[in-house]
Write a structure and sequence with these properties.
Structural class: alpha/beta
Helix content: 40-55%
CATH superfamily of the largest domain: P-loop containing nucleotide triphosphate hydrolases
Subcellular location: Cytoplasm
Shape: elongated
Order of helices and strands: EHEHEHEHHHEHEEHHEHEHEHEHEEHE
Distance between the termini: 57 Å
Keywords: Cytoplasm, GTP-binding, Magnesium, Metal-binding, Nucleotide-binding
CATH class of the largest domain: Alpha Beta
Largest sheet: 6 strands, mixed
Number of domains: 4
Function: GTPase that associates with the 50S ribosomal subunit and may have a role during protein synthesis or ribosome biogenesis.
Radius of gyration: 26 Å
Number of helices: 14
Main location: cytoplasm
CATH topology of the largest domain: Rossmann fold
Strand order of the largest sheet: 6-7-5-8-9-10
Protein name: GTPase HflX
Length: 428
């Protein structure tokens, strides 16, 4: 498939050309040309009429399969441009959905992609109906007016059915999540811009070899694995990558996947530290915007600067400071900023930050545990180490242990025949 890319930069904000080209390649397109323009949005064509004629001549010469806009097009603009160019027209978000379709493997991911596609098509179908009523040729998938009306009904029916199926999947996941919490797991979510190295980090933490490619949106299926932080059991979940100005219809469609971020105890926000500061800043702010929309900024957030092996220590430290300063300016509380190399398994800073973050969670409180049976002391200590932190041990007729443990795990300790009482202490 061959394509001509079109980018309209706002006078106040430029679109990242390299990222757009990477999206095109990730979707499998051969890029014939990229046409750029700097101007305010034209209401009819998005780009200026003169630039549209320039693209028309280019399309007649190069004969692309599609002309793809980096800007989001209104349904009216898409129809107007297609009418002029007589070539298939899509925008950045339809391009992203094409990539999603290729990468979705699980039932949930396929349903989410289908829902997003239907949500995208809905306003286009409405515009086709409006034009049909005005006497214009609808030009939507070669359908006549009656067929378009029927297709609109089908879209609404299918969307309702998919939402019910996704809700069932969400409910099943919620049951599993509660079970995991009941047995003392800490839930950590990997979040961040697409292609920052989240899947590689998941592999490094869990010591697995899940495929991780240097491509955009390689992860659409939710993947959860376990690892330990100083004997504490942790589950880490990889989530779909973020991108600038993620539209509401994609956020809605992937709600059940993105919910993993909102339900997590700790968020690891992954960025590629080897990129220029301007790119890191753009992606960091885009990620914060999505986390704010998900109402997830109240959780401990550890910013993980990945790929430290591709730059210098001085550069890494400068960017750490800049991230903290930028977060402060935006009124966002960041628990810590650490640097790692997931590829080379250099994760020491991250493990130390996770240890500190775990003990700040609301689910942890300090208790005094009294063990009267000497034969059970080692068993109790092993269990406490897996669900909390031992602060002090006093041996005697009865062993007294001061520990910081998960409140939900008290039942597991009482089954061992120990006495437990709340003993408040400020560790923070």
């Amino acid at each position: 498939m061959k394509a001509i890319g079109v980018i309209r930069h706002s006078p106040r904000k430029r679109i990242n050309k390299a990222e757009f080209e990477e999206l095109l390649r990730s979707a499998g397109y051969e890029v014939l040309a990229i046409v750029e323009q700097v101007r305010e949005e034209h209401p009819k064509y998005n780009i200026g009429p003169g630039k549209l004629q320039e693209i028309k001549k280019l399309a007649e010469e190069l004969k692309p399969d599609k002309v793809i806009f980096a800007n989001q097009l209104t349904p009216s603009q898409a129809f107007n441009i297609a009418k002029e160019l007589r070539v298939d027209i899509i925008d950045k978000w339809q391009l992203v959905l094409e990539i999603f379709e290729k990468r979705a493997h699980s039932k949930e991911a396929k349903l989410q992609v289908e829902l997003a596609n239907l949500r995208y098509e809905l306003p286009l179908v409405r515009e086709a109906i409006r034009r049909a009523k005005m006497g214009e040729q609808p030009g939507f998938k070669g359908m006549g007016e009656y067929q378009i009306h029927q297709y609109l009904k089908h879209i609404r029916y299918r969307m309702g059915k998919i939402r019910k199926e996704l809700e069932r999947i969400r409910e099943d996941r919620e049951v599993k999540r509660k079970r995991r919490e009941e047995v003392g797991f800490i839930i950590v979510a990997l979040a961040g811009y697409t292609n920052a190295g989240k899947s590689t980090l998941l592999n490094a933490l869990a010591r697995e070899e899940i495929p991780a490619k240097d491509q955009m949106f390689t992860t659409l299926d939710t993947t959860t694995r376990r690892f330990k932080v100083n004997q504490k059991r942790v589950l880490v979940t990889d989530t779909v990558g973020f991108i600038d100005d993620l539209p509401p219809f994609i956020v809605e469609a992937f709600h059940s996947t993105l919910e993993e971020i909102t339900k997590a105890d700790i968020i690891l926000l992954v960025l590629d530290v080897s990129e220029p500061w301007s790119e890191i800043k753009r992606k960091f702010l885009a990620s914060l915007k999505i986390l704010r929309e998900l109402k997830a900024l109240d959780k401990p957030i550890i910013v993980v600067l990945n790929k430290q092996d591709l730059t210098t220590n001085v550069d890494v430290e400068d960017k750490k400071g800049a991230i903290k300063e930028l977060a402060d300016k935006r009124g966002v509380v960041i628990f810590d900023v650490v640097s790692i190399s997931a590829k080379l398994n250099r994760l020491e800073e991250l493990y130390r930050a996770l240890e500190r973050a775990i003990l700040t969670l609301p689910k942890y409180k300090s208790f005094e545990i009294v063990v009267k049976e000497k034969g059970k002391v080692s068993q109790v200590i092993a269990l406490i180490n897996s669900i909390g932190e031992i602060l002090d041990i006093e041996y005697g007729e009865a062993t007294k242990i001061l520990a910081y443990i998960q409140v939900g795990m008290i039942k597991s300790l009482t089954k061992l025949g120990v006495e437990i009482k709340y003993s408040p202490i400020d560790l923070k």
